[in-house]
Amino acid sequence: MRNLIKADMQRILKKKSIWIAFIFMVAVVAGEIFYQVSKAPDRNFGFAVAAADGMSYVGLVLGTILVLNIYADDFKSTAYINVVGRGINRKKFIIAKFLDALIIIGGMYLCGGALIFGLQAGLGISLTSLEIRFLFLTFVNELIFTAASISIAALIFFITENNVLGILAFLSINMIIPVTIVFVRTNPTFAKYNIEKLYLDGAASSMFSDFMMGQVGAGLLKLFIILAVYVFAAIIASIIIFRKKELDF
Predict the structure, then answer these.
(1) Residue 20 and residue 161: Cα distance in Å, rounded?
(2) 114, exposed or middle or buried, with CB in 10 Å at 0-12, 13-18, 19+?
(3) Cα(208)–Cα(189) distance, rounded to whole angstroms?
(4) Structure pTM?
(5) What's the average model confidence in pLDDT over 72-100?
(6) pLDDT per residue over 93-102, tens digit each?
């Protein structure tokens, strides 16, 4: 599995799209920070909010690119059939693909953090401990949300072996379903059930709020539920389904 991940990393890092995502991150985060700091009454608070907003855009773009490069490429080229045909365990193959995504996401967010704190020093911004915690939790929240979205999109890939449906699933998780929930909540009948808290986006936001308010126990419980329902369950389902798939070697 280590060799598979290494080969994937070498292939993915040669892709122009990954470096475009990196340039996008630098441009969006830096642009958002310079814009907000220039007009915010409180430069320090404006910096923290701008940095968090900038990174929220990165997750969607990066996640889409990772779904394309890690899953769509393999299914389009049928490379996954060759890998499995050479004796790679199907379970290890699925886990390796998810770890590919985590490594790239983690690396990108580390670069994002270095960029933000570099800009903080350059602009002479002084952040409070609360603002630093806000930024750290924003990073964690975005990373978990992106990873969960990818694991669910991967499940659709392994069920359908269709690139379009897999990519559509990722975009739906990030954009279409949250917007649909907002419209559904305008109906008083559904609004009272707080369905948004059951969905990944709402659950992650609720977890973020708990940690920000110092309610660590509640935050950890929600983190465990998110990982269990939206990450591990999706990976386990992918393993079960892909293990039973008939592949044309």
Answers:
(1) 27
(2) exposed
(3) 27
(4) 0.83
(5) 72
(6) 888 888 988 8
Three-state secondary structure of the chain: CHHHHHHHHHHHCCCHHHHHHHHHHHHHHHHHHHHHHHHCCCHHHHHHHHHHHHHHHHHHHHHHHHHHHHHHHHHHHCHHHHHHHCCCCHHHHHHHHHHHHHHHHHHHHHHHHHHHHHHHHHHCCCCCHHHHHHHHHHHHHHHHHHHHHHHHHHHHHHHHCCHHHHHHHHHHHHHHHHHHHHHHCCCHHHHCCCHHHCCHHHHHHHHHHHHHCCCHHHHHHHHHHHHHHHHHHHHHHHHHHHHHCCCCC
- Quote the CA–CA distance of 138 and 50 in Å, as a whole number: 11
Per-residue pLDDT of 172-201, as tens digits, reads 888 888 778 777 777 666 666 666 677 888
Nearest to 26 by CA among 46, 63, 55: 55
Distance CA 162, CA 141 (A): 29
Average of pLDDT values for 135-154?
88
Q: Rounded distance, CA 156 to CA 164, Å?
A: 10
Is the per-residue pLDDT at 149 higher than 60? yes
Cα-based angle 164, 168, 171 (whole degrees, multiple of 5)? 145
Q: Count the alpha carbons within 13 Å of 4 in the hemisphere toward its beta carbon.
A: 23
CB atoms within 10 A of CB 64: 21
